[in-house]
Design goal:
heterodimer; A: 421 residues; alpha/beta; Fumarate Reductase Iron-sulfur Protein, Chain B, domain 2; Rossmann fold; 4 domains; four-stranded parallel sheet; 10 strands; B: 593 residues; alpha+beta; D-Amino Acid Oxidase, Chain A, domain 2; 3 domains; nine-stranded mixed sheet; 16 helices; 31% helix; binds flavin-adenine dinucleotide; binds iron/sulfur cluster
């Protein structure tokens, strides 16, 4: 148990003035009575949770999706989502973690196992029978959208295979791709490499592992700490050498930048050096563009594109850089969603008891997409679980903004999700 | 005029008086208790909340220490649900080093049987991570945290079940003294109902003065002299618990050396300043500063944490002869038999002591009553748990747990302290309560971070609704079968309040003839004023932000400074006003002795 981390929420809860602004914004509390809201679960309940008590007094905090909308709106800066995450970890330490949550927390492991024999794994995971079983036995919602393992193998395999074709340059960046890109969506990584190389950057893809966020949100702090330490060991050298480390999944980069150091009380020099070097890809691109070091030789893309900035992205507090860059593409009509959350919030939407809540939360976003008219053929969002959720809720394909940029350079096919060369 | 006849009349509804009425009723005496306000309106409602192990007195007052440990062990059984088993540490901070106090302390504990064991500093820090890491020694003793409000209710609850009558909002104006064959006898008391103004005479065989710091005044009514030296103690409550164990400094007792976790807050205290009168009590800036400075020695960073409010209580220190004031005088219990002292029969004064020893004080008092009335009836309070004790100790999360189990989130009126609407309604009707401040004592309404910011208007709305429907009026003050069956333990627990019974009123009373206390505007103003009084001494930082929001709600949005009935005051309003007597800036007074 991270006792110290448990204690450190005190100063934050002291900031709460009970205004309930967070309660009126929380996307989960808006759709279900099962979750009494951020103020209740966070600073309010925290006064009743103490070390050495018979047991955790409350369980409804488990319904917090971790979207951090509350943190964003709180006028006094209470770290509500963190208080909730810690309460969940406390509960997990006390009551044990259900197998289902252990599975969901280890998407890297699942990704690895499935990648050994993708067709078999896909069949195993996606047939009707196993979904029913997963639902009944583990509580993994039958209707949630699980990822598929791609035929062509992992992103890592592609990097190795195309080693000789990769650009060598004095301008270098380090790419933190995360597990989603590694095992399920290697094409996001390919599009990223293509865009960066188009701008004259050599892309270094170092060994790395899961950022640990799924573990953190399921309350497995000790495990998450191991993952985080591994990443620090593997990546801090690059940070020290002055490389920018960029990532395409905002939740992963947020974890490296802020969540892991904060929740795990990692304030050592290594963690801090790493966190200072990590960028979200569009945050980084916008910076290059502002310096005049980003190419805008875009081909027009004539379509309406509803874009949803994931809640974890907003938690970076960097504005909406992907939106700014997408708007540079001629003829592309980007429509910004102001929905609070897509509902999936990482692994939340996969849990049987929360799936319907996740869909209800997402409705705001799905409705927004629907009213953009029948001409809409796809949507865009930065985090994979958001894209999967939006696909499930709208029936339309969803793309990472980097895929759109790669397509605008003429390097990438948005339909087949393949590089065009 | 209404007349009542009883065997024993107890004056004062603090820990001592409630203890006496309980003991007397259990021994089969017909007993009445009168209290001029709500139960625990006096010192008992303003104390530090420590169930003493006796450790604090182990060196200086072994006899007092022995009483504490014995009573501590008894109350843990008889009043289990009024106690949190926090345990207690005596810590040697860098400021406390350099003498042999720790050795004397251990010897003192051993001598009177206080279980005391030295534990490794690392172990103490593991249990209390915020504790000053520079402490050098830690001793563990069986201190506890006590809910004095609930305990008073539970005690009178037990007394009622045994046939006693409890009359709150009844003030003694005069004692009736008669000459009988050359001897002075106190035979009764003239009492008035503070709410209705009705006068009552209560005749009794024996009268017990348990009026705490006011007992000198009461004694004077009988022509007896009791010199009480009121000693003010200021305490500061922090917004949340910084420790879960009672932390005492291991040194000669002085100011600000105890930190007590109490429900959702922790309280540092106290100062000790002789004052001319038990009320009103003004809190001086140096007192607050002193508490924060001392807190800093126990928990580094203490003074940066959010402060909730400050308040003061007054110790009824009894003086045989006045010798000058302070902590060193006497906190021992004083049972004064005025027939022996001044030849005044039928009148006893019981004062001094501690909350922890209230049962013992009551036992001594009722033993003397038996002697006076010429009967022998053994005391049974030590072995008779009060209703609710069967629930066992409370713990800080219990309310949240109840709210979660029963899914009462939508029913919360006071969100900070988790008071549900049903808890409030039940407390109003069965308790009975007259003001929001009474409800604060009963169910913790408005005690949390926002200090009534969001619950005051809600609670007033509910009370007004109940009053209009005839479900709340001054007749509620009378004893009823309903009240008798009502288990005071239920006041504290959302889980016990599932049956909402607002139709159970006596159907009487409506705004037109109701006394002024039922005026909703007044209720609102009085309570806000009461909360405001405790926040003003600590108005900086986060609590200032909070008050700014509260101010916007009440002054800007509800315009409460311009409500109708602006001039209205109830008989209880005065208490919430500030002491505006211009006083010199009081520097920290020099210690005597
Ligand atoms: C600052 C401070 C901190 C303390 N901390 C602790 C602690 O941590 N642990 C502990 O064990 N002890 C503590 N004590 C001591 C303890 O609080 C008191 O000893 C105890 O509460 C006294 O109770 P009481 O019933 O004698 O007096 P009170 O509680 O003062 O009761 C007297 C009652 O008499 C009523 N009354 C007065 N005049 C009349 C009248 N004319 N008619 C009818 N009713 C009348 C008053 O309204 C009052 O309610 C503390 C005391 C102080 C001052
Ligand atoms: S993190 Fe999201 S779901 Fe959780 S309390 Fe905050 S707003 Fe609500
Ligand atoms: S928005 Fe912030 S200050 Fe307001 S209730 Fe929520 S946590 Fe408290």
């Amino acid at each position: 148990m991270h006792t110290e981390s448990w204690q450190s929420v005190g100063p934050s809860l002291d900031e709460c003035i009970k205004c309930n602004i967070c309660t009126s914004y929380c996307p989960v509390a808006s759709v279900t009575d099962l979750f009494p809201g951020p103020k209740y679960a966070g600073p309010q309940s925290q006064r009743f949770r103490e070390n050495g008590q018979p047991h955790s007094p409350d369980h409804s905090v488990d319904y917090c999706s971790g979207c951090r909308v509350c943190n964003e709106v709180c006028p006094t800066g209470v770290k509500i989502a963190e208080i909730n995450a810690r309460a969940r970890a406390h509960m997990a330490a006390e009551e044990g973690i259900p197998l289902r949550n252990r599975l969901l927390g280890r998407n890297e492991l699942l990704g690895k196992v499935g990648s050994i024999a993708p067709p078999l794994a896909n069949f195993g995971l996606h047939n009707q029978l196993s979904r029913v079983l997963a639902d009944k036995v583990f509580g993994i919602a039958q209707d949630s959208k699980l990822p598929r393992w791609p035929k062509g193998g992992t992103f890592g395999k592609w990097v190795k295979k195309t080693q000789d074709q990769r650009l060598k340059s004095d301008k270098k960046v380090v790419y933190y791709h995360g597990c989603g890109t590694m095992y399920y969506e290697p094409f996001i990584g390919q599009a990223t490499v293509a865009v960066l190389e188009h701008n004259g950057y050599e892309v270094i893809v170092p060994p790395q592992n899961c950022c640990g966020l799924p573990l953190l949100s399921n309350g497995e702090f000790d495990e998450a700490e191991k993952y985080h330490d591994n990443n620090v060991n593997k990546l801090v050298g690059y940070a020290r050498d002055g490389f920018d480390i960029i990532g395409t999944t905002p939740s992963c980069t947020l974890t490296l930048k802020e969540e892991a150091p904060e929740l795990l009380d990692k304030h050592d020099a290594d963690s801090t050096d790493l966190k200072m070097a990590v960028w979200d890809i569009f945050e980084w691109i916008r910076e290059r563009w502002e310096e005049g070091d980003f190419r805008t030789d875009f081909r027009p893309i004539n379509m309406i594109l509803p874009y949803h900035a994931p809640c974890q992205y907003r938690a970076h507090r960097v504005g909406k850089p992907a939106l700014e860059i997408l708007q540079l593409i001629p003829e592309l009509d980007v429509r910004e969603s102001c929905a609070r959350c897509c509902g999936s919030a990482g692994t939340y939407g996969y849990k049987k008891e929360k799936h319907l809540i996740a869909m209800a939360v997402g409705k705001e976003l799905f409705d927004f997409v629907a009213v953009q008219g029948p001409g809409v053929t796809m949507t865009a969002s930065d985090t994979e679980t958001c894209r999967w959720q939006i696909e499930l809720g709208t029936g339309l394909p969803s793309r990472h903004p980097i895929e759109i940029v790669a397509a605008a350079y003429g390097l990438y096919n948005l339909e087949s999700r393949q590089l065009t060369n | 005029m209404h007349k009542l006849q009883t065997e024993v009349l107890v004056i004062g509804g603090g820990a001592t008086g409630t203890g006496v009425v309980w003991d007397a009723a259990l021994r089969g005496f017909k007993t009445i208790l009168v209290e001029r306000r709500d139960l625990t309106h006096g010192t008992t409602g303003r104390f530090h909340g420590l169930l003493h192990s006796g450790g604090r007195y182990a060196v200086k007052d072994p006899h007092g220490a022995e009483e504490c440990i014995r009573e501590n062990q008894i109350l843990r059984k008889t009043h289990a649900h009024c106690i949190e088993d926090t345990s207690g540490f005596f810590v040697v901070t860098p400021e406390d080093e350099g003498d042999d106090y720790p050795e004397k302390f251990v010897a003192g504990c051993n001598a009177v049987g206080i279980p005391c064991s030295e534990i490794p500093v690392a172990e103490a820090l593991r249990r209390e991570p915020l504790l000053n890491p520079r402490i050098s020694r830690v001793f563990e003793v069986p201190d506890g945290s006590a809910d004095g409000f609930l305990a008073a209710h539970a005690t009178v609850n037990a007394a009622r079940v045994a046939g006693a009558q409890i009359m709150t909002y009844h003030e003694v104006d005069e004692l009736i003294v008669e000459e009988r064959s050359g001897e002075r006898h106190v035979v009764g008391a003239r009492v008035h109902n503070v709410v209705t103004g009705e006068h009552i005479v209560i005749y009794a065989d024996i009268i017990v003065n348990a009026a705490g710091a006011w007992s000198g005044k009461l004694a004077a009514m009988a022509g007896a002299e009791v010199v009480i030296l009121p000693s003010k103690g200021t305490m500061v409550a922090m917004n949340h618990r910084l420790v879960n164990t009672v932390i005492n400094r291991c040194k000669m007792p002085s100011d600000g050396d105890i930190l007590v976790p109490s429900h959702t807050v922790c309280i540092i205290g106290t100062t000790s300043v002789t004052v001319p009168n038990p009320e009103p009590l003004r809190i001086e800036p140096w007192e607050v500063q002193k508490m924060l400075d001392e807190g800093e020695k126990i928990v580094p960073g203490f003074s940066k944490a959010r402060v909730l409010r400050a308040w003061a209580g007054v110790r009824p220190l009894f003086q045989e002869t006045y010798t000058g004031g302070g902590r060193d005088v006497t906190r021992k219990l004083a049972l004064l038999d005025h027939s022996q002292r001044e030849g005044i029969k039928g009148f006893l004064t019981i004062t001094g002591g501690k909350w922890t020893t209230f049962r013992l004080m009551a036992e001594a008092t009722v033993d003397t009553i038996c002697e006076h009335l010429g009967t022998q009836r053994p005391c049974t309070t030590a072995t008779t748990p009060v209703p609710g004790a069967e629930q066992g100790n409370y713990w800080v999360g219990h309310r949240l747990h109840d709210v979660e189990e029963q899914r009462l989130q939508g029913d919360l009126i006071c969100e900070c302290e988790l008071v549900t609407r049903t808890m409030l309604e039940n407390a109003v009707q069965r308790n009975p309560a007259l003001t929001l401040d009474d409800l604060r004592r009963d169910v913790r309404l408005g005690k949390g971070p926002c200090q009534g910011g969001f619950c005051t208007y809600r609670a007033v709305g509910i009370l007004n609704e109940m009053e209009s429907a005839g479900n709340w009026n001054h007749d509620m003050l009378d004893e009823s079968a309903d009240t008798m069956q009502w288990n005071a333990a239920h006041l504290q627990s959302p889980a016990h309040n599932l049956t909402r019974d607002v139709t159970a009123g006596n159907g009487k009373g409506h705004s037109a003839e109701s006394p002024t206390v039922f005026n909703p505007n007044l209720l609102l103003r009085d309570f806000l004023q009461e909360r405001w009084k405790g926040v003003t001494p600590v108005l900086w930082g986060r609590q200032l932000k909070q008050e700014r929001l509260d101010e916007l709600i009440y002054l800007s949005l509800m315009n409460i400074d311009h409500l109708p009935d602006d001039e209205l005051a109830s008989p209880v309003t005065d208490f919430y006003n500030f002491d505006t007597t211009p006083g010199p800036f009081e520097p920290e007074p020099k210690k005597v002795g």
